[in-house]
Amino acid sequence: MAEAVVDLDAIAHNARTFVERTGSGVMAIVKANGFGHGATQAARAALAGGASWLGVSSPAEALALRADGVTAPILIWLYPPGETFEKLLLAGIDVSVASVAALDAVAEAARATLHVANVHLKLDTGMSRGGALVDDWPRVFERAAELHRAGAVHVRGIWSHLAGAEEPELNGLAEQLVSFDQARAQAAQAGLDPEIVHVANSAAALRVPHSRFDLQRIGIGLYGVEPVPGATHGLRPAMTVRAQVLLTKRVPAGTGVGYGLDYVTSKETTLALVPLGFADGVPRQAAGVAEFLVNGVRRPVAGRVAMDQVVLDVGDLPVRAGDVAVMFGPGDHGEPTVHDWARWAGTNTNDILTGIGARVPRRYESQHGSEQ
Ligand SMILES: *Cc1c(COP(=O)(O)O)cnc(C)c1O
């Protein structure tokens, strides 16, 4: 009825595009169920395309990848205070640390499990989200160096996250990169020499060559959505969301449609019912401006978006039950894109992709054959 078709070849192509364009490694960011595409499927496709690392936010996400048999290096960076890290180390998962307490807890888990604890030191270079504040860097570097020398942890990476590489004026980006250089210099003085340095997200990787270092953490670009609207880097959108029209009805001018009867037909027209609603990720805020592609033509959503369905005003277009209405896709056939929906809803592309509900079955396609 409704489905999200995921083009795994597009994900592989996008990973390859970042590797080739930048000459540095790719950590495929598959958090939030691979931005809605399916974490394990997206991870496998990205690895096939040349990604060498995977990144997810939470321990549970990382352990789920391991449970699915994914063996590539994985980094996680969000966990609660008191996290014990033992399961993560047993599963060979790298941990981001930003405090002496976290370093000590990871070292303790390494002792308890007799497993290597690979850590990546995370610095706050100005975004004021995760990472150690500049005043804490000396303490964190000192303890990290101590534990590293003692063999209690292995300081494998040093990293930060950028606040605004998507903005054309690159707000604060230069200052963040200077701050990151200072962090690396301080870490070196403390005797640390992490093998893997990473800062760039998709936008930075494409726009700011000196942010690339060893690895780029690629999220939105992996799914083929241009991180900077209007720019083109040869990425291929991976997801198409569509549904069959359930029924159509011919109604006269002056017919109210949907909750509140907000929409009133201006002339005799055909209405088409599509089983995708806000629970499936059609943003309520997009009502009034949003369109679907039906039989090759863009037609507006009529009235409010309901939980499970929308009504399209298809005019005199011949549309029948069973025809396909496309919410978004690559745009090759005139269908709306994720960027269109982000604009219509006043949000960003990541919000649209991760908003596609769990109820919408994902169907995977690749030239190596379709799989469910
Ligand atoms: C989500 C995330 C990314 C990916 O960013 P994109 O802009 O989607 O490429 C990279 N790094 C971190 C720490 C993230 O949380």
From TrEMBL:
Active site feature: K31 (proton acceptor), Y259 (proton acceptor)
GO CC term (a single one): cytosol
Pfam families in the record: Ala_racemase_C, Ala_racemase_N
Residues annotated with N6-(pyridoxal phosphate)lysine modification: K31
Descriptive protein name: Alanine racemase
GO biological process: D-alanine biosynthetic process; peptidoglycan biosynthetic process
Family classification: Belongs to the alanine racemase family.
Keyword Isomerase: yes
Cofactor: pyridoxal 5'-phosphate
Pathway: Amino-acid biosynthesis; D-alanine biosynthesis; D-alanine from L-alanine: step 1/1
Enzyme Commission number, as recorded: 5.1.1.1
Residues at which substrate binds: R129, M307
Sorted UniProt keywords: Isomerase, Pyridoxal phosphate
Enzyme class: isomerase
Function noted in UniProt: Catalyzes the interconversion of L-alanine and D-alanine. May also act on other amino acids.
One Gene Ontology molecular-function label: alanine racemase activity
Catalytic reaction list: L-alanine = D-alanine
